[in-house]
Amino acid sequence: MSMGHCSEQRPGFEVTKDWNGADQVAIRSPRGASVRVCLHGGQVVSWKNDRGEELLFTSSKAIFKPPKATRGGIPICFPQFGNCGTLEQHGFARNKIWTIDEEAPPLNYGDNNNKASVDLLLKPSEDDLKCWPHCFELRLRVSLSMDGDLSLISRVRNVNGKPFSFAFAYHTYLSVSDISEVRIEGLETLDYLDNLSQRERFTEQGDAITFESEVDRVYVGSPGVIAVLDHEKKRTFIIRKEGLPDIVVWNPWEKKSKTMADFGDDEYKQMLCVDAAAVERAITLKPGEEWTGKLELSAVPSTNCSDHLDHPGRL
């Protein structure tokens, strides 16, 4: 997806337009890492390391145009996940135009900060309130550290006169070399809900999760840190999370890939969704209450990854 020529420099980030005319925000670290966020959906559409390598997967057949959510990057799933409700799949947040939150104090490299960030805001439209009659404010801070780590902090506030409940997920499409060479560590012995078996509950038996067929699972009560190891690239994604008790693991494999119009037939080999989420049990907010969910993604050489699972607290 090419960047447009029209741009506006802000503290810590730059606002540009994509080829559809949609606003995007770009943050670049002094060491060369970068992240791009599209205001359509508040969606991270690119995250590159300091060598310019893309770390997130986006389908070659992705549709970059409302009302279709882009197949790739990190869509925001709110206020529902999947089709378990009355709204469109994964809720409406990923299909709305977000605004830059001008009231949030900018974060920039320097002044003892090793991060730069942009703050986005989503409030319900009249149409949203017709299908989901709850007044909310959803704020998203996307930050890029000097070392290239990506963090997302979401805050949902109830500005309603009555309680409401919601699900939430960062639907993260990781770019991998070959799905058959990937394994996930940190989810061993956990219970999971299998969406391929009517959400039946099972217990993970393997010492790591590997892939040889379609997978669509919700691991419940998961730890704050897990690792996704890509043997061929000798790269490990470290996923840290707070306020998000579940991990969704999804790969459509060959058969389902062929049924998705915005996904290449063989692209399942190059992607893996590992979502920090709150989906098994809904989050309920009373009037005036606020919920916070945090995700931090790091990409490190696999030889350095073993320490990370032993030291969970860093967000």
TrEMBL record:
Record has Isomerase as a keyword: yes
Record keywords: Isomerase
Reaction(s) catalysed by this chain's protein: alpha-D-glucose 6-phosphate = beta-D-glucose 6-phosphate
GO function terms (MF aspect): carbohydrate binding; glucose-6-phosphate 1-epimerase activity
Keyword Isomerase among UniProt keywords: yes
Binding positions (substrate): R71, Q89, R94
SUPFAM superfamilies (UniProt xref): Galactose mutarotase-like
Highest taxon above the source species: Eukaryota
The EC number(s) this enzyme carries: 5.1.3.15
CDD domains: D-hex-6-P-epi_like
InterPro entries attached to this UniProt entry: Aldose_1/G6P_1-epimerase (IPR008183), G6P_1-epimerase (IPR025532), Gal_mutarotase_sf_dom (IPR011013), GH-type_carb-bd (IPR014718)
Any single GO CC term annotated in Swiss-Prot or TrEMBL for this entry: cytoplasm
Example GO BP: carbohydrate metabolic process
Range of residues in the leader sequence: none
Xref: PANTHER family: APOSPORY-ASSOCIATED PROTEIN C-RELATED, GLUCOSE-6-PHOSPHATE 1-EPIMERASE
Entry similarity comment: Belongs to the glucose-6-phosphate 1-epimerase family.
Identification of the protein by name: glucose-6-phosphate 1-epimerase
